[in-house]
Amino acid sequence: MSLLSRRRLLAATLSLPALQLHAQPAEPIRLALIEGLSGPFGNAGEAVFRNLLWATERINARGGVRLPGGARPLALERFDSKGQLEEAQTLLKSALGRGIGFVCQGNSSAVAAALVEALDKHNAREPHRRALFLNYSAVDPVLTNERCSPWHFRFDAHADMRLAALVDVMRTDRALQRLYLIGQDYSFGQHVLRQGKAMLAQARPDLVIVGEDLHPIGRVKDFLPYAAKIKASGAQAVLTGNWGNDLTLLVRALREVGAQVRLYTFYGNALGAPAAIGDAGVGAVHAVAEWHPNVGGAASDAFHAAFRRRFPDPKDDYLHLRMQVMVEMLAAAIERAGSTDALAVSRALSGARFDNRVLGGLGEAWMRADDHQLQQPLVVSVMDRAGAPGVEKEVEGSGYGFRTVHRLATADVTQPTTCRMSAP
User: Fold this and answer.
1) Where do the Leucine-binding protein domain residues begin and end (predicted)?
2) What confidence score (pLDDT) does residue 278 get?
């Protein structure tokens, strides 16, 4: 090739668009995590972030989300609401303004309700920038009943489903005669106490409620007065929906005053609660969930082991199957829709099914089209020392774990809905 030819080839090459010289990475599908990542429940928010980060990483490792124009990765973006409702609303506007089409939140039903309302208005006002709200933990039943929305999908069992599982265990515990109720003073905590009494009145009319308390959420530093009241009441057990530090501080106070009570909890199996309870929790602390590390089976063991390899610090051992299922079902719905458009994805996700046994779960989960509430099996477990029969894996390096005491099929926990969802 002559010198002139080489110069002409170089000039032609330099004039090519950059896209022809270097393949550009596919634009990611962005998910906004709006959560309290600092403040009194910052540990719970960071634990959620690890779960969702791992879920997106696993999908990206498989090549991402397959779309007609080519596969695209998922990208999780953090928005720290500090646990404040007003801050969460401001961050929602910011995420939507940046064109993010999928919003994730869960650690507060009050915040979730405000975000659903704001998103409904936004989607009606700006249909070209609609978004979906993916809820992994806000379990006030009203969110899929009176306040249901075509843009909201809940992947956690709501409070009545969880209560049904716990009440089913208490139904057979005839030695239990005196129960104390305590909860956080906001929509979810109020509902747990109100509905807990109603369910128990049907299942155990002989059971006496010896006391009940609602306390400010995230603001009580000393639970000793509450613990002293529980002990003085003669209660044999406590039913609570408390989560995060409000649960950890409560169980520490109960231990300090020497209250010998069983605990029926929504979240007593994580975020420091087992270590705080110690030996007093052996055989006494019950938790309800869609999965726990000792449910057994090769798939469950592999699922847990993979998470521990990704996050080897024992303190980070907070793994929830539903958060993985949420991201898996979202990715599958985007692929079925062939688009990231919120309306198309909403239609694809409504009624969708996912066999969570591939991740070690207990059976098929399905997103009920009537109210966008995920229907799934649940399991009740009880705290025991690590290494005891059925407790191969400990929680958060605490020396304690949980073993299964009761499994409930989807039909056993499914609840009716009053949702009258309007078409978008």
Assistant:
1) 28-386
2) 86
